[in-house]
Structure formats: C-alpha cells, structure tokens
C-alpha cells in the first residue's frame, strides 16, 4: 500500500472513553523496515503551538465527549511542601493582566471584595469533608508532593556502564503545584514540571524546571493560586461559584485567561525540532533543552496561528513519514471533536457505548470515517494499533480500565487496568476484545510504550508500568502481545517508579526488543531518587544514575537523541 493511501484511525469514544486515534498499517511483521502505516492510534489531550513551516490539517468534526478513569491513592504521611523558588523568566510573553502594584483604585477595591468572597467560600467548603479524589492530603502526599526547581547538576555519579546508544536527553513531565492548595486538589491539577537527564560526552546531568505557562506566571506574580482547578475544585454549586469568582477577577483585569489556562503537565512529544509540553486544557508549550542541559520555556505553540483549540496530550508520530497525528475536543462549542495531521512540510455515562472512529490519516474531511462500537471499553491509554489486511481488521492494543471513571470519582469497586487486544472489523463494522494476559494472572498495567520505531506496525512487545499498589508503580512488565507472556522487572522494597521509556539501540536492529528501558525510581525509605537503565532483552540492570534531588512520581516522557537535539528549533 502506498504512503498516499495511508490512513489514521481516530478513536473517539463517545461515552466513558477518551478520544483515541487508531493505527492502520500495511505490514504485519515486526521488522523495523516497514513503510508508513495507514492508520494511527491515540488517547489523551493537550494543546499545541509551533513554528511557521509546519502545516496543520484538520478534518474531523463530530460530537464526542472525552473522559478519563478513576481511583484513589492510599493515605500516607505527607512530606512537607518545600519552599518553591520562582523559576527564571523565559521568552514566554507576559500576560495582559496588570501586576498588583499597577492596579488602579477600582481594581484594588474589586480585589479586596473578591478576596472576601473567596474566603467565605473556602470557609464554607471546609465545613464538608473532601473526597479522597480531591483531598490534597491524599493526592500530593509522599513522593507525589511537589519539589522546587533545580538548576543543572553535572557529573552525576553512575553505577555500572551507560550503553553507547544512550546519548541525548530523557525528559519526563509531571504535576508539581507551585502553591499550596487552599481547597480541593487532584493530582492532575498541579503545574507542569519537566525533569531532564542528559547524557553527553560520558557525563550525566540533571535539571528540573516548571513549564512557564501563562497560568503559572500570573499565579506566581500574585503569590497564590487563583485559576480554578478543573478536577479538584469544579464540583457542584461551589464549583460554579469558583468559576464566577474567577471570571469576575478577569472582568476587572486582575487575571487574564485569554492566553490560556493550562498547566502543561501531562505529555511530552518531540516534533519537527520542538519539544512540546502538553495537557488537556490548553495549547502545547514549546520548551527548549539548552546546551548545558537546562530547560527554558519559549511559549505557547499554535503552529504559526494554525491551531486555535486544545490538543490531546498523547499525539502519535509516524516513524516513517515523521508526521504527527492528534485530536482536539471541546465540550462547549462545535465542532466537539477535531482530527489533525501535522506534516513537517508541515462525563462518563455508563449507558453509552464507546466508539472507535477509523479515518484515512490523509483525509481532508470527515466523510470517510467509519464508526465501530466497542462495548464495555474505556481505554485510558492506547499503546499501538496496526492493520491486518487479510482480515480487513484494525488491531488496537490498549489498557481498559474499570470502573471507567475511577480516577476522578470514588468507587467501591477496585480498579482494574486490563491489557486488551481490540479488533475493529472494517467490513462488518463489528468489534471484539480479548484479554492479552489470562484473567487468573491479571495485573494492572498502565503507562508505557512499544518500540516507537514500529509505531503503527505490528509489534510483539509492550513495556508497561506495574501500577500496583495503585497509584504507585512497583516495576515494569515486558509483555509478549502474541502469547500473553509477562516478564517483570521490580524496583525493590519501598521503591517505586513511573512510566518505562524504551530506547532502541538502533533503527536497524534486527530484534524488536534490542534496546534499553529508562525509568525514574524513588526509594521511599531513603527518600532518594535515581534513573535506572535496564537491558530490554535480559531485563538486567545496566546502569544507575544517582540524582541530586527527589523526583516526584509523574506522568509521561520522551527521549531525544543527541542527533535530534542538534536540529532543535
């Protein structure tokens, strides 16, 4: 199949599931020497901004509501929040709201009055116990607690030998609230902070920096949180009151929401020389990796004015064509769902059924989309998808969560994340779903990836976080997607990590698993963090980088090779 016939599956779950993008490929073997797939797969949310020579194509407009799952963190003794020093200024443009010292008499009076209203609202809220899903004492306790920024620490101690192919920078995103919450707070509400470990010239360095969002800049200037927290605060009548309070402050010019309200704390992708930090509530933010290994925010990235709506935090990049595929959703105004192709020339309802949309990835409109229902399916993350032409099916690999809203709402049911193979039959319009791992051996597998050189092509292995005890990660699993065989790598007693990052040794490797798995690991007893490098074939530890400060548990990351960094914008 020629690349001009390549297509992308936009899996837009219309009920309990999040919007996804399916992947269709014309090749079935896991050989790295494969051409561009016909379909692409995705879940999540974020917003982009980028430079002039990138072209964005939007083609899908269909009503669909995206959503995520739920479960709570076990209570644990909180670590005192550190004093967070203000991050250094970047080239991010200043918000148009004036600073407090520049306010006029009317603004000062309005600020005092609205602060009184907020104090009364907080006092009222504190008369009712917070659910665990919005209790900061639960959500940001232990190693989920925030840390201050850290400038570059060089020549870090290394145990073992770092493989020759590990040359570049490993970056991981996460939520790290700048200010102590005054009311409800969910883990996903925190400000975005990127942790970077750079490998260069035989030396290893580490730095962590906030992504300088418009929200963070304004709240830092005011010295306290004022933007509403979508998950932790916006519930019931008090949530409506908080929104009214925020827009009243905006009306008087005390805050400015016109340049975005996002936290950029979820995903990271490196596309067309740009490292983009993403979340569900804004455009992406462009962040540069400096020559010294530090991080600096350039600003919101809208692809030279071509993108004016949020973009999901988990876009997918075709390894052959270099194109990026993503979705954007809006629950207020039409179109509710958009599908994007970026070229380098470039509320949960239990009665509804999730649907996957399959669309030619080069489509110019939505007329050719095929919708296929997948009952009892909520995929928080999708790992890969490919086309099997002999059966006219799209095969989707993802982790299906039950209950589907368990990350955001308390539930009596225990959370299960089931690694699943979903088959979408394009001829019959029917779907099937099967467990990849036997039910008797069920383990919760969440954040992870496949060999990204084979994204959109048939893969044998997936590297996934062992999300046990939820929401901590006790190790990672290498899963054979054909046989269901699971090999585990455990971090050890009272040691937990996050998303495993697979770094292939070479694009030309004959073995799909020829490479290394990188993971941040935190020792809760010693309260120290490190970066482990594990051989993906043998699952033996190759090297450990001792980090100078604690790295909180976070979300998603990526690896940028030294060669790609040379072409950074």
From TrEMBL:
Residues 72-85 have a biased composition (Pro residues). Residues 51-65 have a biased composition (Polar residues). The keyword Lipid biosynthesis does not apply. Residues 23-102 are annotated as: Disordered. It catalyses: 9'-cis-neoxanthin + O2 = (3S,5R,6R)-3,5-dihydroxy-6,7-didehydro-5,6-dihydro-12'-apo-beta-caroten-12'-al + 2-cis,4-trans-xanthoxin; a 9-cis-epoxycarotenoid + O2 = a 12'-apo-carotenal + 2-cis,4-trans-xanthoxin; 9-cis-violaxanthin + O2 = (3S,5R,6S)-5,6-epoxy-3-hydroxy-5,6-dihydro-12'-apo-beta-caroten-12'-al + 2-cis,4-trans-xanthoxin. Its cofactor is Fe(2+). Belongs to the carotenoid oxygenase family. This is 9-cis-epoxycarotenoid dioxygenase.
């Amino acid at each position: 199949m020629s690349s001009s016939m390549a297509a992308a599956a936009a899996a837009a779950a219309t009920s309990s599931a999040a919007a996804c993008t399916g992947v269709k490929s014309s090749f079935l073997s896991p050989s790295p020497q494969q051409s561009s797939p016909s379909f692409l797969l995705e879940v999540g949310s974020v917003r982009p901004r980028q430079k002039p020579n990138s072209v964005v194509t939007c083609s899908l407009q269909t009503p669909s509501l995206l959503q995520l799952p739920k479960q709570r963190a076990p209570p644990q003794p909180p670590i005192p929040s550190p004093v967070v020093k203000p991050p250094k200024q970047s080239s991010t443009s200043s918000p148009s709201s004036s600073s407090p010292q520049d306010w006029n008499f009317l603004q000062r009076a309005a600020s005092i009055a609205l602060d009184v209203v907020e104090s009364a609202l907080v006092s009222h809220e504190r008369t009712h116990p917070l659910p665990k899903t919005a209790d900061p004492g639960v959500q940001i306790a232990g190693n989920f607690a925030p840390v201050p920024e850290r400038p570059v620490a060089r020549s870090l101690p290394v145990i073992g030998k770092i493989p020759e192919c590990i040359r570049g920078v490993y970056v991981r995103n996460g939520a790290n609230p700048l200010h102590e919450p005054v009311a409800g707070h969910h883990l996903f509400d925190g400000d975005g902070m990127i942790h970077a470990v750079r490998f260069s010239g035989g030396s290893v360095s580490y730095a962590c920096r906030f992504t300088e969002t418009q929200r963070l800049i304004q709240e830092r200037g005011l010295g306290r949180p004022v933007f509403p927290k979508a998950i932790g605060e916006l519930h019931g009548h008090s949530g409506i009151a908080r929104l009214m309070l925020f827009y009243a402050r905006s009306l008087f010019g005390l805050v400015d929401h016109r340049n975005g309200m996002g936290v950029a704390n979820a995903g990271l992708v490196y596309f067309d020389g740009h490292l983009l930090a993403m979340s569900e509530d804004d455009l992406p933010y462009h962040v540069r990796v400096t020559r010294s290994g530090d991080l600096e925010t350039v600003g919101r990235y809208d692809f030279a004015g071509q993108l004016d709506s949020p973009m999901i935090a988990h876009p997918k990049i075709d390894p052959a064509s270099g194109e990026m595929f993503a979705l954007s959703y809006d629950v207020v105004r039409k179109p509710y769902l958009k599908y994007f192709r970026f070229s380098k020339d470039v509320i949960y309802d239990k009665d509804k059924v999730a649907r996957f949309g399959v669309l030619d990835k080069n489509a110019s409109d939505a007329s050719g989309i095929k919708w296929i229902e997948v009952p009892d399916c909520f995929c928080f993350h999708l790992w890969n998808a490919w086309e099997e032409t002999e059966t006219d099916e799209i095969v989707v690999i993802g982790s299906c969560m039950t209950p589907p809203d368990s990350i955001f709402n308390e539930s009596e049911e225990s959370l299960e994340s089931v690694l699943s193979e979903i088959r979408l039959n394009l001829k019959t319009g029917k779907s099937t779903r099967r467990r990849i791992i036997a039910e008797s051996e069920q383990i919760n597998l969440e954040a992870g990836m496949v060999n990204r050189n084979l994204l959109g092509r048939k893969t044998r292995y997936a590297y996934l976080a062992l999300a046990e005890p939820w929401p901590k990660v006790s190790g990672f699993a290498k899963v054979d997607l054909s046989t269901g065989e699971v090999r585990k790598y455990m971090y050890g007693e009272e040691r937990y990590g996050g998303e495993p990052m697979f770094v292939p040794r070479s694009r030309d490797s004959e073995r799909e698993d020829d490479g290394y798995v990188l993971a941040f690991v935190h020792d809760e007893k010693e309260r120290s963090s490190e970066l482990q490098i594990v051989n993906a074939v043998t699952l033996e530890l190759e090297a450990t980088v001792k980090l100078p400060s604690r790295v909180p548990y976070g979300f998603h990351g990526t690896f940028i090779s030294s060669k790609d960094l040379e072409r950074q914008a």
